[in-house]
Amino acid sequence: MKKLFIASAVAALTVPFAAQADTTVSGSIALGIQGGEANGDVLSVFADNVDVMFATSGNAVGANTAYAGFEIEPHTLSASLDAIEIDAVKVGITGDFGDLSIGDVGLSGGQGVKAWDKYDATPGTTGGISYAGSAGSVSYKIGFAPEGNNDGMGIGLGFSAGSIDIGLDFGSVEGSEDVVTVGAAMSMDSGLSLAAHFQTQDDADNMAFTAGYSMSNGVSLGLNFASATDVESAFKLTASKSLGDSTSLSAAFESNDPEAGDGMSGFNVILSQSF
Predict the structure, then answer these.
(1) pTM (2 decimals)?
(2) Tens digit of pLDDT for each residue in 36-64?
(3) Measured over all CA atoms, what is the biggest interatomic distance in the chain, rounded to whole angstroms?
(4) N or C: which end of the chain has fewer CB within 10 A?
(5) Contact 133/143 with Cβ under 8 angstroms?
(6) Which of 148, 149, 139 is nearest to 98 (CA)?
(7) How far is CA 19 from CA 43, 56, 61, 250, in A?
(8) What is the share, in percent, of the chain residues with pLDDT greater than 90?
(9) What CA–CA distances, in Å, run from 8 to 1, 5, 79, 264?
(10) How far apart are CA 11 and CA 19, in angstroms?
(11) What separation in angstroms does the CA of 181 have from each of 86, 169, 197?
């Protein structure tokens, strides 16, 4: 029945959009191989990411663009079809007025810089409404989830000045501690980029730092470090190579060091294709 659910959901999203003359379909598929202690010391093929987005513009929405998108879960190919679900479903309209969307939009303001989401504690909901806009170098986003969708709200502010981005996010869900995230990122003409963020949820703080370097031949290198107070720290090394306008090959090694117990490490190699 899950096959039927997926097919029906895709059809429901595509039919109205396909009827429009100026409709585009975009997305990405990333598949790879993973192994190491963190993956049970066995090699497995997995789906790292599968996203699809539909967008249409024309007289039906004036000068604005309507869109719909979804993500396929879980991120594994070894699960049975009964475990596959469609996630992050949303529809919206974007234009000069901003961006208004409904569905699985998330409550985080989304304007805050997150260096690495390893220990991200941003509250989630089962559905909501969000509005995002900008004024000069300042961007903002407001999210709301009604009582039947975890009852929450989020606000985000972002500021850009040349090669520097600064962001602040606030998220709150009924029955959970409020989460505040503040971060900054900087990119340089040399290809070097730096980012850091700090997130607090009552006394469960976490922070992350990342450094990256991109070369003109399409090779990119990265180093991530993250720490969750009194819980665990981790680092991750990444390398990727562009194989064309829409294809890339990447590899990563990650090691976790918990406050209690033995640490674990894992690796993956991923081939990504966007369309």
Answers:
(1) 0.79
(2) 988 788 898 888 778 888 888 765 566 68
(3) 61
(4) N
(5) no
(6) 139
(7) 44, 9, 13, 37
(8) 46
(9) 11, 5, 21, 40
(10) 12
(11) 28, 5, 7
